[in-house]
Amino acid sequence: MNNTIRALRAQHGWSQAHLADLLKVSRQTINAIETGRYDPSLPLAFAIARLFAQPLETIFHPDQETA
């Protein structure tokens, strides 16, 4: 799953560690989500959307499916 978390975080001037503290997760979790190595749980995805005051679908985008 692709996402815009890195760009949103940069717009706010937040480090990965600060965002992790706000979401009560590890910095490594934020890094893994940003790089696409980990898809957040639904509650975490909603928490991220609330924090950035954005709809889920503007933050998270499914990968292109291959036919």
How would you describe this structure in keywords?
67 residues, mainly alpha, two-stranded antiparallel sheet, 2 strands, globular, Lambda_DNA-bd_dom_sf, Cro/C1-type_HTH, Helix-turn-helix domain-containing protein, DNA-binding
Folded structure, characterized:
By secondary structure, the chain is mostly helical. It contains five helices and two strands, in the order E-H-H-H-H-H-E. Helix 2 (about 15-25) crosses helix 3 (about 25-35). It is globular. The chain starts with a strand and ends in a 6-residue tail after the last strand. This is Helix-turn-helix domain-containing protein. Keywords: DNA-binding.
Order of helices and strands: EHHHHHE
Radius of gyration: 11 Å
The rounded distance between the terminal residues' Cα atoms is: 17 Å
Sheet with the most strands: spatial strand order: 1-2
Which secondary-structure class do the elements indicate?
mainly alpha
The helix count comes to 5
Mean pLDDT: 94
What is the secondary structure topology, with strand pairs?
Elements lengths: L1 E2 L1 H8 L3 H8 L3 H8 L7 H11 L3 H4 E2 L6
Antiparallel strand pairs: 1-2
Helix pairs in contact: 2-3
